[in-house]
């Protein structure tokens, strides 16, 4: 099975790195799916987006990603986010409460956090 090296990094820490078979990210140009052998690309991540990774073990995980860049080379996908949270780190109740806030950017982040955690918005 073909695989690609993936690194998910936020400003404050590395969230995950390893081998994967598929990565999906939301960029300002639209959603992009990356498989091994994908052409090199550089994309700007949207505020309040989600990154989904399918590992070589067949496991899948999501992360809420807020801004940053996606860089794809022949052998590596690097997600360099301003901030990010893995789905299992998200406080769903806190995110639901933030949906009612007045700050549009904060509402977008809350919606992404809920989607990453598998909740409907």
From TrEMBL:
Q: What is its main location?
A: membrane
- What domain of life? Bacteria
Signal peptide (from-to) = none
**Its GO CC terms?**
plasma membrane; proton-transporting ATP synthase complex
Question: What is the protein named?
Answer: ATP synthase epsilon chain
Cell location: Cell membrane
| Keywords annotated in UniProt | ATP synthesis, Cell membrane, CF(1), Hydrogen ion transport, Ion transport, Membrane, Transport
| Quaternary structure and partners | F-type ATPases have 2 components, CF(1) - the catalytic core - and CF(0) - the membrane proton channel. CF(1) has five subunits: alpha(3), beta(3), gamma(1), delta(1), epsilon(1). CF(0) has three main subunits: a, b and c.
Q: How does it sit in the membrane?
A: Peripheral membrane protein
Q: Note one Pfam family from the annotation.
A: ATP-synt_DE_N
Name all ATP synthase F1 complex delta/epsilon subunit N-terminal domain ranges: 5-84
Answer yes or no on keyword Transport.
yes
**What does the protein in this record do?**
Produces ATP from ADP in the presence of a proton gradient across the membrane.
Family stated for the protein in its record? Belongs to the ATPase epsilon chain family.
Molecular function (GO) terms for this protein are: ATP binding; proton-transporting ATP synthase activity, rotational mechanism
Q: Which InterPro entries match?
A: ATP_synth_F1_dsu/esu, ATP_synth_F1_dsu/esu_N, ATPsynth_dsu/esu_N
